[in-house]
Amino acid sequence: MNNTWESVIGLEVHVQLSTESKIFSNAPTKFGQTQNSQASLVDLGLPGVLPVLNEKTIEMAIKFGCAINANISSKAIFARKNYFYPDLPKGYQISQLDDPIVGEGKISIEVDNEEKFIGITRAHLEEDAGKSLHDRYENLSAIDLNRAGTPLLEIVSEPDLRSAKEAVAYLKKIHSIITFLEISDGNMSQGSMRCDANVSIRKYGEKEFGNRTELKNINSFRFVEKAINYEIDRQIEIVENGGSIDQETRLYDANKNETRSMRSKEHANDYRYFPDPDLVPVIISKEKIQEIQKTLPELPEQKISRFIKDYKISEYESKNLNVSKELSSFFEKVAKKISSPELAAKWILGDLMAILNKNNSEIQDSKISSEDMIDLLSRLEEGSISGPGAKKIIDLCWLSNESIDVLIKKEGFDEVKGEDELLEIITRIIRDNSKQFEQYLNGKDKLFGFFVGQVMKETKGNADPKLVNELLNKKLKQ
Amino acid sequence: MEDLSKLSLIDQINGLKSRKFSSLELTEFYLKKIDQAKALNSFISLNENALKEAKKSDEKISKNKNSSLEGIPIAHKDIFCIKDQITTCGSKMLENFVSPYSSTVYEKLSNSGTVNLGKTNMDEFAMGSSNETSFFGNVLNPIDPERVPGGSSGGSASAVAANLCSFATGTDTGGSIRQPAAFCGITGIKPTYGRVSRWGMIAFASSLDQGGIFAKNALDAALALENIAGFDEKDSTSINKKVPSFLNEAKSKDKEHIVGIPKDIIEDIKDDKVKNNFYESLEILKKSGVKVKEIDLKNIQYSLPVYYVIAPAECSANLSRYDGVRFGHRCENPKDLEDLYERSRAEGFGEEVKKRILIGTYCLSAGYYEAYYIKAQKIRNLIKQSFVNAFKEVSSIMMPTCANVSFKLNSIQNPVEMYEQDIYTIPANLAGLPAISIPSGKIKNLPLGIQFIGNYLEEGNLFNLSNKFQQNSNFHNE
Q: Is A226 in the same domain as A283?
C-alpha cells in the first residue's frame, strides 16, 4: 500500500444481453457454434441490408436502468461509430453517443465492511463486433462473425473507484444485478461480460485527475484486480522517477501479468459519430418504464434481507449466498426442502463452495445438484448419516453419477449405530481397555478422548459424535 | 406486326389479357430492341432467364392466374439486389458481386408477374447527374446520342425513353429519377421517403435514398408504383401506411388542386426558355381547372449546400463496408491489412465516389461535425418546415425539374456546376416529400420537364395532377 498516491479508477463494462437473436438482425446469438454459422446477411454487412432493432434489448436496458434507479431516456438514438477493422463488417459499429438509453444512476458496493456508492455515468446499447482469429492459419487471419451484432449494454462508471479491490467489488455487483435481472448470463470466460478500466493516480488530497490510461481486454475478476494493481504500480514508479503518464490505451496480458501500450492519444481514432439514418429514434414512454418496473424481479439487496428474515441465516451468509442468482436460487431450493435452512447455508457456503473452488467451477456447472444437496442434508437431519459421513459423501457425489442414497449405501454409511447398539459397543470397549478405564477413574480425564476415538473406530465413523460423547460420559461415570 | 414496345403499360396489360400477344412475344420484341440499341449502353447486364420468366407468365395468363403486372418486361436499376445475379451499383468494386438475396422492390415486382429484362446502367453508387461516373461507361441519351441521359438512373431513363422496357425502377437521392426523366422526356416519380422499402437497394445516402419508377406516362407510373410501395418490416424507416390504388387516384375526377408557385425560385430561373416553359405549363394546368397560388419557400436556397454535407457524410459511412475483406474488389497480394484496405478501395472506387467519401469524412470529423453536419441538419429541418407551412395552403408545388436540358457528354468539368444540376430536385429529398417529373416541352429537340412536389404520402395527388396535364398536352407521346 502506498501512502502518497491515490488511485482513481473508472470502469466500462460490456455486458452481452441474453436475447435469442441479435440486436439488429434475426440471427441467433448462441455461443460456441461453428464459425460464421450465425451470421445473417445483416451481420455480414452486405450491400443493401438494413438493421432492424430487437425491441427486447430496449426492455433489458430499461430493466437495468430501473434496478440502479437511473434516469431512463425518453428518446434513445443510435449512432454510427466509424472505424475500419476486419471483424467489423460495416466499417462502423452501431452504438449510442447522445441520448443513451440509461442516464445517471448509482450502485452500492461493500469493501472491508464499508458501504460505498459508485456513480454510473450512463449505460448504452450497441452491437458487438466479430472475432479475428490470428493463430489459425499461417500468415493469415480468419474472421468469425458469429458474435457480430450480439447486443451489448455498455455500463460506464464515474471515476469513483479508489482501488483494484473496489473495482472488483463493483464488477461483482454489476454481475449480480445483471444475472438477477436475467438480462445476461454474466459469463466472463465466454466473454458475456468484459471490462475496460480507466486508471490514473494522484497525490492524496489533490482534486485534479492525473493522466489516465485505458486498460483493455480484461476478462476475469481476478485479472481486473491484477491488471489494475500492475498499472497503478507502473504509474507510481514512472511518476516517482520524475516521469509523466501518457494518455494511452494499454492491453493487459494475463499470461505475463503486464500492460502494454496499444495506441497513444495522438493515434486515437476519430470515430466520427453521427446518428444512424437507417434507424429511427426509439421513443420510450413513462408507461412503458412503469410497466417494466413492475415486472422487475427481486434484486440482490432485497433478497439478502428476505433471506435473513425468512431463513434466519446471518447477514454474512445471506450476502454470500446472493453473489449470484444461481447460487441464491440453489440455496433457496434446498432451504425450502429441509427443516433447517441454517444447515443449508452452512453446507452450501462451506463444503459445496470448497469443492466448486477446487474444481474451478461455478454453481451453474455444479455436479452436485440441489436435489443431491436436499437428499444429503435430509439424511443428516434424520440422523441416518453422520456429519463426517456426509462430508465424505459430498466429495464422492462430485465424482460419481450415483444418487446420494445409493452412495450412502455403497459406502456403508447407512449403518449408523443407534443408542442401544452404541451402548453395547461402549461397554465392550471399556471392558477391553480396563487399564485405561482405571486410569481414567483415577483422574486422568484426558483419556476421554481415547475412548471417543475407539468408539468412532469401531463404528467406522457411523456414529453421531454428540451421542457418543453423551453415552460415554454416562458410562464412564457410572 | 405493330411496335409492341411503344404501347403504354396499361395497353400492354390489356393486350396480354386479351391474348392479342403473349409475354414471350413482348419479351422477345424488347430483347431484340435492346440488342439493336446496344450503343446506348443502357444495360449493364441482361437477364438470361427473361424468356423463361415470360413463358411462366404466359402459362399463368392462360390459366387466368395472372398477377397485376403479369408478363410485363421491365428493367431494374443495377442498384437493386437480385438473388444469384450480379449487382454492380455501377462500380468496379462490385463488378463481380453476386447477391445472395433479393431486394424488396425486385421481390414485389417479381411477385406482380413482371419479367426482368436486365439491370440498367447508373452512375457509380448513384453519385452523379450524367451517368458519366459509371464504371461500365457512359449511357447515351436516345433523343440525342451526343448528350447525357442524366443521372444517376441514366440507364433506366434511356431504356424507357428508347422503348427498351415497359417501365423501369430507379432510385432518387437528390434527383436521380426526376432529372434523367426530364432529360429523356419521360415520367419519373420519387415517392415519399419510406413509401418504398430500401431493403436490398444499395445505400448511397440512407436518409435521402428512395426507390421509384420511370414510365411512359403518369398512369403507367401510378400502376407501377403501387406495385412496389408498402410497408416492409425489414426497413426501419419504412412507413406503415396502407397504399391506395395510385391508378384510381390518378384517374379520379374528384380531386381539387391548388398548385403552389414558389415565386422567388421561378423568378430566379436563369434560362428564359426554361422559365417560359414553366409558365406555358402552368397555363395548360390552369386550362384544366387547376387553381394556382404563389407561395414562399424559406431557406430553400440552402438546399444544395445542405445536401452536399449530409449526402457525403452518410455515404462515407455507407461505403465503409467495401473494404476488400468479405466481398467486392480485393487488391492483389496485399502486404498487410492497411495495404488491403488502401489498395482495394483505391482500385475499386472511381473518382467521384472517392471525392464524396472524402467530403463526408471531413464533415463528420472532430472539430467540423458541429460546423457542417449539425448545421446542415438544422437547416434541413427548417427547409422541411417551409414545406409543411406551404402545404397548409396548397396541395402541390410546381417547379422546373432542371435548370437546363440535357448537355453534351464530358461538357461539364466543374464539379459544382454538375452538382447544381440537382438544384430543383434536392429540396424534396431533404424534406422526404414525393415528387414527380413529367415532360413539358422541348428546347429545339431536347425535352424539358416540370416537377410537382406533393405533401407526405400524397403520391396519388401528384399522379392525378400529372394525368390532368398529360390529358391536356402531348409532350409525353412525342
A: yes
Cα–Cα distance measured from residue B455 to residue B303, given in angstroms and rounded to the nearest whole number: 18
d(CA A83, CA B204): 18
> Which DSSP category does A137 fall into?
E
Give per-residue pLDDT as tens, B299-328. 999 999 999 999 999 999 999 999 999 999
pTM of the predicted model, to two decimals? 0.89
Distance, CA of B436 to chain centre: 10
**Residue A203 in this model has a pLDDT that exceeds 70:** yes
Place of cell 414510365: B215
- At A425-443, the pLDDT tens digits run 888 888 888 888 888 888 8
Tell me whether strands B446-454 and B396-400 are parallel, antiparallel or unpaired: antiparallel
Residue of B nearest to A90 (CA): B321
Nearest CA to B118 among B164, B154, B161?
Answer: B164
B332 touches chain A (CB under 8 A): no
B176 catalytic, yes or no? yes
ipTM: 0.97
Q: What is the DSSP letter of B371?
A: I
Contacts of B320 in chain A (CB under 8 A): 82, 84, 90-92
Using CA atoms, how far apart are residues A403 and B345, in angstroms rounded to an integer?
64
What's the Cα-to-Cα distance from A114 to each of A111, A169, A205, A323, rounded to whole Å? Answer: 5, 11, 21, 17
Rounded to the nearest angstrom, the gap between the alpha carbon of residue A472 and the centroid of all alpha carbons in its chain is 47
**Whether residue A404 sits in one domain with residue A423:** no
A389 and A453 together in one domain:
no
C-beta separation of B304 from B426 below 8 A = yes
Cβ-Cβ contacts under 8 Å, B364 against chain A: 82, 272-274
The reply to whether B327 touches chain A by the CB within 8 Å rule is: yes
B77 has catalytic annotation: yes
Q: Are residues A452 and A406 in the same domain?
A: no
CATH code for position A445: 1.10.10.410
Q: What phi-psi label fits residue B279: left (phi over 0), alpha (psi between -120 and 50 degrees) or beta?
A: alpha
**A431 shares its domain with A310:** no
Chain A residues touching B207 at Cβ < 8 A: 277
The Cα A114–Cα B85 span in angstroms is: 66
Bridge-based pairing of strands A274-275 and A5-16 is unpaired
Q: Would residue A328 count as lying in a domain?
A: yes
